[in-house]
Amino acid sequence: MIKKFFAAALIVASVSFTAGCANPGDPTISASPTATPSPTATFTAKTPAQAKAAYKLIAKASCDEAQLNGVVETVGPTTVVMTPKAKNYKDYNAAYFTKPDKYEVIWELTGLASCADWYTFSMSDEAGKEAEIDVTFNKGDGTYEVNQSFDDVKYSYRVTVVDGKMGSEVEIKTGATTTLRYGNQTAADQLILTTAVDRYLATIG
Prior knowledge:
By secondary structure, the chain is of the alpha+beta class. The chain contains three helices and 13 strands; from the N terminus they run E-E-E-E-H-E-E-E-E-H-E-E-E-E-E-H. The chain has one domain.
């Protein structure tokens, strides 16, 4: 469910040359612009403890952003939507849709990739314990590999970080990729929430 973008300047050099034994006044031919390769991003190695500490900050930033501005998470046929609380619908603000026609309300932050890991960290902090989550850092591409268990099931996934937040994560076992988009929710995104809530409320009278 993950990469830091590094902006690099692209330098373009234009080279002009004369063809053959051109006489003065003959037209010159310009070569196609040649792009100088962009610098390759480099990352500093981290110990497991350093990786875990860094990832904790990423997890917090991701969940904070999701709760403040909303988030849309997509994996396969499923789209998860959480709106800012100020834009809740009938006191609900998170739901998911799975094609072709399954809509469900989400009740806990653990149901969102953007908040599940921060929930683990924050609950452990409140209990005064070390979070049961293992993190390693890949200095080759800047991704974090995260391992933890939910309901006695172990999950391992590779997280790419964008602007200090989770951008996507890939479940290592299945290859399923979750992409995350913060803010800028569309009418279609909002429709997932309203449909899920209306259907749920209809079942409880």
